[in-house]
Amino acid sequence: MSLLQIEGLNLSIHSFDILHNVSLTVEAGQIVGVIGESGSGKSMTALAVMQLLPEGARAAGSVQLDGQDVLRLSEAELCHLRGRTMGMVFQEPMTALNPIQTIGDQVAETIRVHEKVSKAEAQERARVALARVELPEDRFPMSRYPHELSGGQRQRVVIAMAIALRPKLLIADEPTTALDVTTQAQILKLLKRLVQEDGMGLLMITHDLAVVADMADHLVIMRHGSVVETGPSPDLFRTMQHPYSKALLAASTHQPDRAAQPQEVPLLEVRGVIRDYATARRGIWGKPGTFRAVDDVSFQIRRGESLGLVGESGCGKSTLTRAILGLEEVQAGEILLDGQSVFTGHKANRAVRRRMQVVFQDPYGSFNPRHRVDRLVSEPFYLLDTPPQGAARDAAIAEALESVGLTADDRHKYIHEFSGGQRQRIAIARALIIRPDLIILDEAVSALDVSIRAQILDLLADLGDRMGLTYLFISHDLSVVRQVTDRVLVMQAGKIVEQGDTALIFDAPTHPYTQQLLSATPRLPDTHAA
Amino acid sequence: MLRYVLKRLVSLVISLAVASLVIFLAIEVVPGDPAAYMLGMNAQADTLAALRDQLGLNGSVFERYTSWVGGMLVGDFGTSYTYRTPVAEMIGDRMWISLPLAAYALTLSTVIAFPAGVWAASRRGSAADMGVMGVTQLGVAIPNFWFAMLMVLVFAINLGWFSAGGFAGWEQGFLAGMKSLTLPAIALALPQASILTRVMRSSLLDTLSEDFIRTARAKGLTRRQVLWRHALRNAMIPVLTIIGMQFSFLLAGAIIIENVFFLPGLGRLVFQAISARDLIVVESVVMLLVFAVIMVNFAVDLAYAAVDPRLRGRR
Questions:
Q1: Nearest-CB residue to B314 (from A81, A82, A148)
Q2: Which residues of A touch B222 (CB under 8 A)?
Q3: How confident is the model at residue A506, as a pLDDT?
């Protein structure tokens, strides 16, 4: 008998079918990776095991956990299992903890809910659990609140809560998606160690093939609520048969064709830029301190080039972007586009500003939901002194939409009528409409599924060739940067620590920080060997 | 934590100073000569001079302001022009009606709203939830003076359980005093309770859909345990804001209800003082109400910090 045996699981929410005939097993001590894109039903499968499904969900089939069918248990029996026999870790560590309870109390709660122990004993066992996830009491007192910890530390607390009672099954739903690569590597290592120590089964859900490639014993690939292929890892990467599995693997390592050659002339020049932020006053009458987010940064982008900017969250990437766009004034240094300064006095220079556009990460949050697409796309016209009117405006909108693979008729729709990938196309159309020279892509493909991401990368490469665009590609995802950039800058704590040809830096990084980033980046097994 | 309290205290003192200045300028300086205003157009020159002298209007604006503020700091609010009695005494009497009335109404509103809001939120979409939402909709819509008159009609005139108005006086005993405040308190509490119920419900529903609630459920907590241990305290933050605003409103905004029930409270005092052009009373009572509102806001700020560790700052 397997630890977890899902057989013929069907799930519908209200009248929508979510899962069809899903079957998978997890043995004790085994790591099973469930891979799929958004809407594949991978999270719903996990929630069905926990029986924490949204309202209106109906599950049929069987989900045997340690010999009991959880689909047939009462809510009281399920509460008994959750936290004790099965634990779960979620994607978003920033919001997964109660903000107004100490971490010690939250971990101790798992113990106190299930066992009649004294408060002191529960605290003592919570201390042990936190130490096991590498949050020792002497450096991370249990009286800390979640807001006093980083994202990776919070995720460790969530893991400590889930493993405090040494459950037989741990479910981790995208546990590292919201984290930086080095933190991700640490959390993955921790999960692996806990599985080995406790002999528990781990059901690991992710959209990222590379994350589970060298960790999972067994892989399950899901699409549209069904399992399309399963097999042992890493052999499955060579033996996979299903066209979708192959397409998923191909999209993960997709390399867009780029024909354009960068010219020698610099388009953007950043010289000695410093950006300071005021920090809170020390004491009521104290002076505010300063935090240097960008520290003496200099670089150039040549016309037609694609330059990558990588670094972990908080390293100053976004601040630098805002400075380049003229959204924030810098304290020292200068930023020139084609020889013209981004700032004139204390105001952004419109003549320069209209020659660069930005595409942000969030395809959902970066549009006003009450405006139609034509208004959204034509927004940058405000930067022009004589924006096109009437038919000329309509033609420009139609051209921008068509150039990103949408139709002119889409102009009348609202943003909620589009998928995530289509929204990102609209964001690109909005950037293109005033024919800029430079497009800044600020984590522009990070929120997209791999197959959509591959399409968008192709689109960007194609547009770059056709329109002679120059890209500044900002991302925390090193594998994508490797695929689409000519040169790369590595940023750490406000400074550029290494820069050079992308291929060169990825093959032979010289700075220790770059080496650390690259070694933390999960890699797919080499499938060409077979 | 200490820093947070100190910061709030500094802001409290600044707010009070600014408020006193605004009140003083609006009442004593901007309209021109207060004595001429109080006596009307046909006042005799010597009466005016006498009043000016009595009101202390002969000094400079700065002197008058400092003596007004200085007086208030030691409990001297001046003498009422119409009643010829110290304002401090008048306020003292009336405060013992307005303050208990506000507290009574707020207690009623909270006691009704908390369970009703929690009940509705924990049964979202059920008949109970819709019933609560319907009743509170009505509670918000009904004008409280009309509801007050309705209650007088039913409970005072027809049933004879309560007197239709007036205040028995605390010397008749605590219960007698509370009894005469009951109908006004209910009238005041009805709309407040309705608003508070709705805020409580929606705040709790927001909290219940947060990620950490799902985490708590994954630990094995029942729905009920999650509600009481995790959701409720997190949901309190917007509720506290509303409670603070309601107390301020109840203290200063009871004018109509005090008039309906002939209660000699602060609201009625201001109303009468304005009609009689008794600027000294108006000025002092308004300042007192501002003081109360600012103190309540300070208390709410402290309550925030008690509920939310993020406000206490890093250690």
A1: A148
A2: 75-76, 79
A3: 92
Q: Which amino acid is at A477?
A: D
CB A91 within 8 A of CB A175: yes
- Give the other-Cβ count within 10 Å of B245's Cβ: 16
B299's tokens: 């208390």
d(CA A172, CA A168): 13
SS3 of residue A87 by DSSP: strand
Classified as helix, coil or strand, A134 is coil
Q: Write out chain B residues lying below 8 Å of A101, CB-based.
A: 230
Tell me whether B33 touches chain A (CB under 8 Å). Answer: no
Cis (ω within 30 of 0) for the bond into A234?
yes
- How close does chain A come to B124, measured CA to CA in Å? 11
HEC readout, B16-42: HHHHHHHHHHHHHHCCCCHHHHHHCCC
- Exposed/middle/buried for A213, CB within 10 Å: 0-12, 13-18, 19+? buried
A519–chain B nearest CA distance, Å: 31
pLDDT of residue B144 exceeding 50, the answer is: yes
Is the sign of the CA dihedral A78, A82, A85, A90 positive or negative?
positive
Cβ contacts of residue B75 below 8 Å, gap of 6+? B88
Structure token digits, residue A157: 């607390």
Reported ipTM: 0.84
How far apart (Å, rounded) are the C-alpha atoms in residues A156 and A167?
A: 16
Of B7, B215, B314, the CB nearest to A96: B215
pTM of the prediction? 0.84
